[in-house]
Amino acid sequence: MSSTQVVKRQGGPAARGPAGNGGGGVTWLGRWAERAALPVAWLVLFIVFAVLSPDRFLSMGNVSNILGSQSILFMLALAALLPSMVGDIDLSLGGVGGLAAIAIAVLNVNHGVPITLACLVAVGIGAVCGALNALFVVRFNTGPFIMTLGTGTFFTGLIFWVANSTTIVGVAPELSEWTYLRSLLGVPVQFFYCLLIMLAIWYVATYTPLGVRALFVGQSREVAVLSGIKADRIRWGAFVLAGVIAALAGVLYVGTTGSAGPTSVDTFLLPAYAAIFLGATSIQPGRFNALGTGIAVLFLATGVAGLQLLGAQDYAQQLFYGAALVLAVTISRYLRRN
């Protein structure tokens, strides 16, 4: 028997690991460890803050605050998730949510429009803003980063103009009743609105032909087009739905605060993208996914709430969000390449 034959024998099934499949057992374990990394990190963070401040952190009021007060961030993150899943980015969503919020306040407070009709108009405004983004990005084939940055600045200018650079207060309390004040299991009901939308996105993306086509478009647009997928139509839908969900974030903001100002929702845009990139490191590593985004929102909310209870200054929240975004983008890009 030659030495070449011996080497081939040594590289056969017996040398491939315990399962005889190239170390498949280790690979399977590694995949699950990767998918569960973020939930485990969230659990560890929760335990750390619970040990450091058990009376305050574990109180029902704090748990309700973690789940309820971050619903605006949760909703905006779901809006940002949709264009990201199909390979785009929308930096105008903070402006879209703020424009919807100020529209509700102006219509209801200044013009006496019923709050339900004002919210419907706001959602319609979000759809129009999303369609405008799709027109410039998809139809005219421009870069989504710079284009949505421009439209977001335009929307912010509209907000200052419509609001006359002031905060409008006195919105009908019925909206707060249906968002922040009403609770389920001790948690504001608006959190469950976000949860339902997250589950709907997850179901469509995982179990429907539309979700499969969107996945192909997000991974390789050229290959998707060659396969007969109408990529532009899917991208249009993602932008329009993102505008609608961003407008719902504006509705939640008005319901939570009873007011709307020029910078109402825009401040949530950075942590929203931190959440979707952080979510791409878990559940389905390397892919933007709804369940990972939801867990990432809870991770960020837990971290911020814990730091506040420990007496951290206001800038600690920005440090936490910024560091999370940097790490999340780095890790998710690495996973996508692999």
Description of the structure:
75% of the residues lie in helices and 2% in strands. A two-stranded antiparallel ribbon has the order 1-4. It is mainly α and 338 residues long. Helix 5 crosses helix 16 (290-309), helix 6 (71-85) runs parallel beside helix 11 (189-207) and helix 15 (269-279) packs across helix 16. It has helices at residues 3-10, 24-35, 37-52, 54-57, 60-68, 71-85, 93-110, 115-139, 144-163, 173-181, 189-207, 209-219, 221-226, 231-257, 269-279, 290-309, 315-337; strands at residues 168-169, 183-184, 187-188, 259-260. The chain has 17 helices and 4 strands. It starts with a helix and ends with a helix.
Give the proportion of residues in helices: over 70%
**Alpha carbon gyration radius:** 23 Å
Major sheet characteristics: 2 strands, antiparallel
- Beta-strand percentage? under 5%
Amino- and carboxy-terminal Cα gap: 39 Å
- Give average pLDDT, whole number: 85
Regions with pLDDT < 50 over 5+ consecutive residues?
1-26
Number of strands: 4
Quick summary:
Helix content is 75%, strand content 2%. It is mainly α and 338 residues long. The strands form two sheets. Strands 1-4 form a two-stranded antiparallel sheet. It has a two-stranded antiparallel ribbon with strand order 2-3.
